[in-house]
Amino acid sequence: MRLSKRGEYGLRAMMVLAAPAPDGSSPAVQIREIAEREQMPAKFLEQILLALKNAGLLHSKMGVGGGYHLARPPSEISLGQIVRVLDGPLAPVKCVSQMAYEPCGCPDEETCGLRLVMADVRNAIANVLDGTSLADVTAVVKQAHKSRFGPTNREQPAKWKRGQQGTKDPAAALKLVGLPQTSKRLNGTPRR
Measured between alpha carbons, how far is 119 from 121 in angstroms, rounded to an integer? Predict the structure, then answer.
């Protein structure tokens, strides 16, 4: 399984929507705001969010204060649900798919070594994605942020705050709140 840009952007957008606002509420967030924060094309994001809305994972509100919000609590939406809506079945080959099974060309499907291994791959992917909710990811991100920046009460960079325009320059955002600039990601690998 390879996550498409559609799947990646959809997951990132859903994670933004799952994160509570500084006051603990979950207000509707506009497409433009998500696109700017996550640096993704707004028109493409609009199509992705519409697909997630049609699948029942999002609700939208028109007008002032409008935007998208989760249809259910973050703890009830798994990453697997989102990926299946946006990218289809998780199986690396169709003969092991539980959603879109198609027979393969091997002489004996029951003893095919490739099929048996790919079934294990499919099950491992499904177990991780179906066993991880948006709430789980939000908690991991919060912990990673604490580990990286410490348990101080420093404000998040302006571009990360809901409902506020932030700078498009990450270095300027970090300077804005007094955080050190770094060229390393959370896991320590250099940016590319």
Answer: 5
